[in-house]
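Table S4 entry, Uricase.
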Amino acid sequence: MSIKLALNSYGKNAVNLSKIIRHADYHEFRQITVNISLEGDFTTAYTEGDNTKILATDTQKNTIYALAKEHFTSSIEAFGIYLSDHFIANNPQVTKVTIDITEHGYTRMAFDGSLHPHAYIGNGPDKNTALIVQDKGNITVRSGVKDLLILKTTDSGFENFIRDEFTSLKETADRILATQCEASWLYTSNGQDFTACAAAVRNTLLKTFAFHNSLSVQQTLYAMGEAVLQEHSMIKEISLQMPNKHHIPFNLEQFGLFNKNDIFIATDEPYGLIQGTITR
């Protein structure tokens, strides 16, 4: 029987980095988490314990901090591209680099119409993301957002689904639609303003969600992705993941009251999970 090492990779995860960019009259604060994964000629490290081609994960961590000083000055996508370029250029044994970055957003506090120069407030649970994958001849960039908690109180229903002997869910033409959306999109090229593009795509996603008359989460997911591709020519495809954060009407009849679709039980688990990729 022949045994061999198949796919393999290694890297450093959860590298948490905070940076202050000191401008003349205010401070800019950035906080990111970086994951690195390297693929390449590492077979003997696994099979023989030969570490001569291994770039230590501690070195990878240190590289992130060192390069951030001069090169983390704009978008997380641009910084991710710089990191992947560095690891490919300086390690001939590496054939593929994956850089996964999550940014934890903060906004400067404002008082009496003026921004405070160095005090910040967290933006909320949602975070911007960037995924850069580079091999010897190609680089792809995906931007995204995750933990985007969105909800609307009407213009959503779920009817005409399969009913069998195990079905207990009631049909409804008016329900709460809530989800913790995760989206990522692939660019047609890598020369655009990533920060501006991400903000524009986010706005399209939110606007479509808000104004779409939803017959199902599936339909709303497709409408959101379709709108992004229609409005933003630089996007090649978009993937969305939308867990259904259920809000179940509470039985008030046991107390002699009538629930006018206004009192609900918010549940975390179990939940429906709807996913899809929309492409040109």
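The mean pLDDT is 97.
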